[in-house]
Specification:
This is Phage protein. By secondary structure, the protein is of the alpha+beta class. 45% of the residues lie in helices and 20% in strands. It has helices at residues 44-63, 69-85, 89-97; strands at residues 2-5, 8-15, 27-30, 35-39. α1 packs across α2. The structure holds zinc ion.
C-alpha cells in the first residue's frame, strides 16, 4: 500500500522484523527508501499507534518541522487517544478532510 505525504509516496509494509540492528524497534519511517514499516506481531491497536507515530515522522520530514522524538511520541499518543475516545472523528477526517463531503 502507498502512503502519500505531499509529493512523496511511501511504501507501507507490515513486517516481522523492522530493524535487524534494533530488535526492539516496532516501526520505522525510512525517508531515503521511502518506506514505512510496522511490526506485524503487535496488536492491531499498537500497529495503529505505531503507524500514526511513523506518519508524524514523515510529515515532520516533509515540512522540515524539526520535531524531537519526544514530541513525535506525544503527538502520536495524543492523536491515538483522541481517535480512540472519539470514534465519530473517523468520519470527520475521512469524509470532510478527505473531501468526500462538500459541505
Ligand atoms: Zn519515532
Amino acid at each position: 500500500m502507498k502512503i502519500k505525504v505531499g509529493h512523496i509516496d511511501y511504501e507501507y509494509t507490515e513486517v516481522e522484523i523492522v530493524n535487524r540492528q534494533d530488535p526492539y524497534q516496532v516501526g520505522e519511517c525510512d525517508y531515503i527508501n521511502r518506506a514505512i514499516s510496522i511490526d506485524k506481531t503487535r496488536s492491531k491497536k499498537e500497529q495503529g499507534e505505531i503507524f500514526l507515530h511513523e506518519l508524524i515522522h514523515s510529515i515532520d520530514e516533509y515540512f522540515s518541522i524539526g520535531l524531537k522524538e519526544k514530541q513525535v511520541k506525544l503527538l502520536g499518543h495524543g492523536l491515538s487517544m483522541a481517535f480512540r475516545d472519539n470514534p465519530s472523528m473517523q468520519k470527520l477526517f475521512v469524509d470532510k478532510v478527505g473531501g468526500k463531503i462538500n459541505e
